[in-house]
Amino acid sequence: MTETIKLMQAHSSVRRFKEQEIPQEHLNEILKAAQMASTWKNFQSYSVILVRSQEKKDALYELVPQEAIRQSAAFLLFVGDLNRAEKGARLHTDTFQPQGVEGLLITSVDAALAGQNTLLAAESLGYGGVIIGLVRYKSAELAELFKLPDYTYPVFGIALGVPNQKHDVKPRLPLDQLVFEEEYQEVSVEAIEAYDRVQADYAGARATTTWSQRLAEQFGQAEPSSTRKNLEQKKLL
Ligand SMILES: Cc1cc2nc3c(=O)[nH]c(=O)nc-3n(C[C@H](O)[C@H](O)[C@H](O)COP(=O)(O)O)c2cc1C
User: Fold this and answer.
1) Buried b (16+ CB within 10 A) or exposed e, 210-222
2) pLDDT at site 134
3) What CATH number does residue 24 fall under?
4) Is 133 in the pocket of ligand 1 (CB under 6 A)?
5) Could you tell me the residue range of the domain that residue 73 belongs to?
6) What ranges does the record give for the region Disordered, renumbered to this chain (predicted)?
7) Is 206 among the domain residues?
8) CA 130 to ligand 1 centroid distance, Å
9) From the CB of 66, is ligand 1 less than 6 Å away?
């Protein structure tokens, strides 16, 4: 196994951090690694807002009460961004029509790839972190806090810092339920129940709900309207 693969297979999210900074040169290297992720047509349709001031982290925590935000040495907000695209496109055309599903997929996939590079690069330097997707439920408030212009929206954040906790690696689905030879195969309900048990064993006393209960919480009801409303306001829907 290579060192890279070992690092990737050892990943686990870190949500508690020591009161220790990440030096600027480390942040630069992490962000330069992030930037090298593949990106649709090299459009680089995302931006990153680096939050280091405790004041701003606390303001964000008020909106999204996740302890990792408040404790992080650096919080990186990944923004889906077609604002640059508008400026480039308008050099050549009077019409700019980014609204719709493709624009959202292009920007969120680009942001996600850069985000994953960020986390792995940080982990390779001994830092830990967690992706915070809950920022989306407060999209409009974040747009105001971070002065996000038209054609931009928060996709997720990453809280980074020196780890103050270490969890075992969280077991994933068996590979044959996720990777199919040549054509798609629907998994059985028994397989889902078996994975519920694997997850329950892993979480032990920390478990409050099962994996499938969390699926029900997420998808058993209509999505929150706040994400869509903000995308409409930012002219992306
Ligand atoms: C898009 C996305 C959003 C996430 N949002 C949150 C979040 O808001 N809060 C949180 O504690 N973890 C969040 N996570 C972390 C996941 O819960 C975590 O990656 C998953 O449970 C697997 O655990 P592991 O990363 O420790 O292997 C998010 C992960 C992703 C990919």
Assistant:
1) bbeeeeeeeeeee
2) 97
3) 3.40.109.10
4) yes
5) 3-170+225-234
6) 218-237
7) no
8) 6
9) yes
Helix (H) or strand (E) holding 223: none
Share of the chain above pLDDT 90, in %: 98
Instruction: Please report whether residue 87 resides in a domain.
Output: yes
Residue 212 lies in a domain: no
Check if 8 has its Cβ closer than 6 Å to any atom of ligand 1.
no
Q: What is the DSSP string of 91-147?
A: TT-S-----SHHHHHHHHHHHHHHHHHHHHHHHHTT-EEEEEGGGGGGHHHHHHHTT
CB atoms within 10 A of CB 3: 8
Residue nearest to atom 3 of ligand 1 (CA): 133
- 196 in a domain, yes or no? no
Q: How far is CA 126 from the centre of its chain?
A: 19
Phi-psi region of 25 (alpha: psi -120 to 50; beta: other; left: phi over 0): alpha
User: Helices (H) and strands (E) in the chain — how many of each?
Assistant: 10, 4
Tell me: the pLDDT tens digits for 171-209? 999 999 999 999 999 999 999 999 999 999 999 988 899
Number of domains in the chain: 1
For the whole model, what pTM was predicted?
Answer: 0.97
Cβ-based burial of 79 (10 A; exposed 0-12, middle 13-18, buried ≥19): buried
Q: Is the CB of residue 170 below 6 angstroms from any atom belonging to ligand 1?
A: yes
- CA–centroid distance, 199 to ligand 1, in Å, is 15
11 ligand 1 Cβ < 6 A: yes
Q: What is the pLDDT of residues 63-107, one digit of tens each?
A: 999 999 999 999 999 999 999 999 999 999 999 999 999 999 999
Given a cut of 90, is residue 12 above it in pLDDT? Answer: yes
